[in-house]
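Subject: for your reference before the review

Hello V.,

The reviewers asked for a structural picture of the protein, and I figured it would be easier to keep everything in one thread rather than splitting it across files. Below is the amino acid sequence we used in the manuscript, unchanged from the supplementary table.
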Amino acid sequence: AHLVFVEPKNRLKEYGFNENYQNFIVKELIPFIDGELKTTTERITLGASLGGLVGATIAIKNPEIFTTVISQSGAFLGKPETKKFFGVNDSWLLEQISNLDSLPIRWYSSVGRIEWLTNINIEISQELNKKTPEHDFVQISIGHNWVNWRNTLAKAMEFALK
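And here is what came back from the structure prediction:
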């Protein structure tokens, strides 16, 4: 197994529905990794907050490339045309998932019970239960922070690496 971490220079700009960033991952980075390392067809996205959004967005748009999504406190609010992720109620990702007949991607989601993203993560989880072959959703009594993500990472990795 190989882990590849891509650190953004500006997470709001790169993670927030940025087509250039998404194309870089799919059309340049993945082929480069495949050329350099012995890889399989199993690909997992993992991200927290806006990292969860970009991972989910790339996977939804490329289900032939990705097998699993891990999202921790996914910042699933907003739309590509507005690029506002806070203080909005609409969700491009929820619309995309709702409009699919099925989604051939395994999905692990976690969210804190005391964060502003709890409700949208619950709504997306309800849709995923209808659309994906396997979905696990975890809520813990904590907020939108690194302690939350650290505490759910082991279970997420167990799910992804079965």
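For the response letter, the relevant points are probably these. Residues 19-36 form the longest helix (18 residues). The mean pLDDT is 95.

Happy to draft the paragraph if you're swamped.

O.
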